[in-house]
Amino acid sequence: MGKNRSPLDPITHTLTGGALAAAGLRRATPLAAAALVIGANVPDVDVVAHLGGDYASLAHRRGWSHGILAIVVWPFVVCGLLLAWDRLIRRRRTGVIPARAGPLLAVAALGVVSHPLLDWLNNYGMRWLMPFDDRWFYGDAWFIVDPWVWLALGGVLCLMHSRAWWSTGLWIVLGISTTRLILTEPLVPPFARAAWLACVAAIVLARIAGFAAPRREPEVELATRAALALVAGYMVTALAANLPARAEVRAELAARGIDPIERVMVGPAPANPLAGEVVAVTADAYHVGRWHWLGKPRFEYAGRRIARPSPDDPLFAAAARAPEARDFLSWSRFPYIVADAQVVHFRDARYLSREGIRGPTVHLDRAAGTVTPNRP
Predict the structure, then answer these.
(1) Cα→Cα distances 220→60, 153, 155, 237, Å
(2) Could you report the per-residue pLDDT of 136-188, keeping only the tens digit for each?
(3) What pTM was estimated for this model as a whole?
(4) φ and ψ at 337, to 5 degrees?
(5) Closest CA to 319 of 345, 341, 301, 295
(6) Residues 6 or more apart from 112 whose CB is under 8 A from it?
(7) Are 182 and 193 within 8 A, CB to CB?
(8) Distance (Å, rounded) from C-alpha 373 to C-alpha 376?
(9) Which of 107, 207, 276, 324 qualifies as a cystine partner to 266, CB 3.0-4.6 A?
(10) 165-184 vs 147-160: helix axis angle to the nearest 10?
């Protein structure tokens, strides 16, 4: 969770498309399930940006393929490809019902829209207005990988789609790999690990007891709808809770004489919806701390002040000319630098407590007037 420089979570997108299908939309038309799953993943074609390196990926991902124009275009692309597949390949079989364009386009659109919505929920960012405007938007509601969404949607999908031996095997592999991640990731709190193991055990017991398709398909479908409703409620609650949290942080810092405050982030913590990391922005600095809904006090100010870089700072201006630094700064939300002689390290205050996404290191040669970027 914490070590990826450019984190991806195709699991959540795939589970969302699959759950929408399992909740009943698979019956809208033949190939509806495929349209939902493909649509839920297709904006991530920009993963090819990784070929340009870590910082090129930061600059170009979650942009043109996720923005408003792409959201309009992608459903037609997905629908068109599936209709072509239906006509050229699928309908060669005897007695196959043809897919219907209207419903297929509708479910493809639902799958596509789910993708940028989920991406926006975290503090990594999403550019809704691309290609017209490259501003980043942040929901600050979920961590980039949320195990509770995995459990809610993955659990019901396991019960719906584990009839054949090979599908059961795939679910076992997924269960083991995600459990290993939760148990070995140091940022996951102990209570979350225990809750994860209990929920996985409950899913396994339900499958063994026979609460699964095809025998209990109607009940599993209802459970899938309930899981989607639960995830939607979790999303709305997390978004709404951020408003009073930010207001309380502002008030606490103002009481300490830290004012005026331009922006406040209460960013989600891994596997713990009750906790968050705080960055408050003033004219010349970032002020950081921790948030916990059950804490007393809820906001703990770390007493740390990180200077905001100024474009007028010659050291920052010189280092920022490096291509990798430009890429990083085009994505960074709270950029700052750590300078050591002629070496400048770029960082983002969102990720102070993690080694996850770190900026480039730039070596300055002032005599020659050149800069040389190096990856950390």
Answers:
(1) 40, 12, 10, 25
(2) 999 999 998 899 999 999 999 999 999 999 999 999 999 999 999 999 988 89
(3) 0.91
(4) -125, 150
(5) 345
(6) 39, 40, 42, 43, 71, 74, 75, 78
(7) yes
(8) 9
(9) 276
(10) 170
User: Which distant-in-sequence residues (6+ apart) come within 8 Å of 99 by Cβ?
Assistant: 29, 30, 31, 82, 83, 86, 90
Which one, of 361, 339, 358, 360, lies nearest residue 349 by Cα?
A: 358
Per-residue tokens: 101:
């364009």
Number of residues that this document lists for the chain: 376
- How does pLDDT run across 193-248, given as a tens digit for each residue? 999 999 999 999 999 999 999 999 999 999 999 999 999 999 999 999 999 999 99
| Residue 93 DSSP one-character state | S
Alpha-carbon dihedral sign for residues 161, 163, 164, 167: positive
pLDDT of 97-106, one tens digit each?
A: 999 999 999 9
Angstrom distance (rounded) from CA 237 to CA 176: 30
Residue 192, C-beta contacts closer than 8 angstroms, at least 6 positions apart: 147, 182, 271, 272
- The phi and psi torsions of 305 (rounded to 5 degrees) equal -115, 120
CA distance 244 to 266: 10
Nearest C-alpha neighbor of 299 from the set 256, 238, 249: 249
CB 353 within 8 A of CB 278: no
